[in-house]
Write a structure and sequence with these properties.
Elements: E1 3-7, H1 11-20, E2 25-29, H2 32-41, E3 46-50, H3 58-66, H4 71-74, E4 77-82, H5 88-93, E5 98-101, H6 106-118
Parallel strand pairs: 1-2, 1-3, 3-4, 4-5
Helix pairs in contact: 2-3
């Protein structure tokens, strides 16, 4: 079973993602600070990342992930979901594996997660 970290400050959206991805173990972080703590405590196979978070942005968290001293964190697959297409290129420059623009389709979310978790790069 894959372990997914969902970084989303909107509780309703986070619950929606959790329900859609019930076949995987998943944990929700509602801020970049919570996510960094969780990343230091356990391994995740995939991070689903919202860009608009309270206090520190998703871009801050993505930079933390990519520049982390632990190679298991720095190479974790990241799937960004954002309503702001202007962030797509900065995120790609930081090595994300997938991008989806809000509002999302749950089928597309589940298909993308499945592809990311079954690929070996």
């Amino acid at each position: 079973m894959s372990n997914i970290l969902i970084v989303e400050d909107n509780t309703d959206i986070a619950v929606l993602y959790q329900r859609a991805l019930m076949q995987h173990q998943n944990t929700v972080a509602s801020s970049a600070e919570d996510a960094t703590r969780l990343l230091d405590q356990q391994h995740f196979d995939l991070i689903i990342l919202d860009m608009h978070l309270p206090e520190r942005s998703g871009l801050y968290l993505l930079e933390f992930i990519r520049h982390h001293s632990s190679s298991s964190i720095s190479t974790t697959k990241v799937f960004v979901i954002s309503a702001d297409d202007l962030l797509r290129e900065p995120c790609r420059a930081l090595g994300i594996q997938a991008w989806m623009t809000k509002p999302i389709e749950l089928d597309e979310l589940m298909t993308t997660v499945h592809k990311l978790l079954s690929s070996h790069h």
